[in-house]
Sequence to fold (228 residues):
Amino acid sequence: KAGVTQTPRYLIKTRGQQVTLSCSPISGHRSVSWYQQTPGQGLQFLFEYFSETQRNKGNFPGRFSGRQFSNSRSEMNVSTLELGDSALYLCASSPGSYTDTQYFGPGTRLTVL
Amino acid sequence: DQQVKQNSPSLSVQEGRISILNCDYTNSMFDYFLWYKKYPAEGPTFLISISSIKDKNEDGRFTVFLNKSAKHLSLHIVPSQPGDSAVYFCAASEDSGGSNYKLTFGKGTLLTVNP
Fold:
């Protein structure tokens, strides 16, 4: 089975712009979660989607949003970028039940200048 | 407020010896715990997990111990190998009754296994 793929792998944006990141889960997985990794805060949960519905949400401002399509692919959008949004954005997929293992993609490295 | 803490940013051990990575948590609602390993430029890879109804889980060279009263878990790697050198993350989650899979991660411990 192919693993979780994320595109693009690297991205450079300037303050005030918006960005959309994409995640393709493992075939058959219905849950996609997004995490932000920064040196200071570590890995922080953004949100989780299951069957096109946001099922769980972390403590991030409304500038961070996401969606999931019927084929379980997910996108994450960040509007009005700030310097502090520079981070590695990771998505993880799982079949969807509570104790299912989450499999992570390689991440998208976003740099905001 | 950091609910999952890995107090050792780094750990160095000799090949063949035991590596012990520690993790403490504060949220008593956490009932499922996981360890992930991360190499540079890759996403975290699942290693091993443990439910709060158990106090030990083994998988090959990896064993996770859970002490609920102390809100502490540890990962033992025996014997340690140079390929184990990576950042190890402890993570925890709570079953919110249908709204699940929100992992809370520690900040990680960099393990270096010296040949």
Remarks:
- The longest strand of chain A covers residues 42-50.
- The interface with chain B takes residues 4, 31, 33, 35, 42-45, 48, 55-56, 58, 90, 92, 94, 96-107 of chain A (CB under 8 Å).
- Chain A is about 0% helix and 55% strand.
